[in-house]
């Protein structure tokens, strides 16, 4: 077997509309509807499917819950601008710009939380 990429992941959320507003308005993702009215967030060639807590689509994670994810999202936006855009939306970053290591090299990252408390790392390769 040879895994080549991540196609999508699933977030269990308390309020799908609130999550859609955050990820589209703050992070610039695109809301899409698929299947029988399911909602997802599209960015690049990936998507985040949203499951409503208590009404998860089967099969689902054994311990599906809100606020349990830790995601690193890549951007081509300078981290200083990421911080400014977060501030403009009234979102307090958990950190300034910090050096980290991504899958293929050095990155600069900014950390924040989404409406469910998931940890988001917004990163740019340097």
Automatic annotation (TrEMBL):
InterPro entries: Glyas_Bleomycin-R_OHBP_Dase, Glyas_Fos-R_dOase_dom, GlyoxalaseI/FosfomycinResist, VOC_core. This is Glyoxalase. PANTHER family: GLYOXALASE DOMAIN-CONTAINING PROTEIN 5 (PTHR21366:SF14), GLYOXALASE FAMILY PROTEIN (PTHR21366). It holds the Pfam family Glyoxalase. Residues 5-125 form the VOC domain. It comes from Neisseria dentiae. CDD domains: GLOD5. It comes from the Bacteria.
């Amino acid at each position: 077997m040879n895994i080549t990429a991540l196609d999508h992941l699933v977030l269990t959320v308390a309020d799908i509309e609130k999550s859609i507003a955050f990820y589209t308005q703050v992070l610039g993702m695109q809301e899409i509807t698929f299947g029988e009215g399911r909602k997802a967030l599209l960015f690049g060639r990936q998507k985040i499917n949203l499951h409503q807590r208590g009404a998860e689509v089967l099969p689902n994670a054994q311990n599906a819950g809100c606020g349990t994810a830790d995601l690193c999202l890549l951007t081509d936006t300078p981290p200083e601008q990421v911080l400014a855009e977060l501030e403009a939306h009234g979102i307090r970053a958990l950190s300034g710009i910090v050096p980290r290591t991504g899958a293929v090299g050095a990155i600069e990252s900014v950390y924040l939380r989404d409406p469910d408390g998931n940890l988001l790392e917004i990163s740019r390769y340097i």
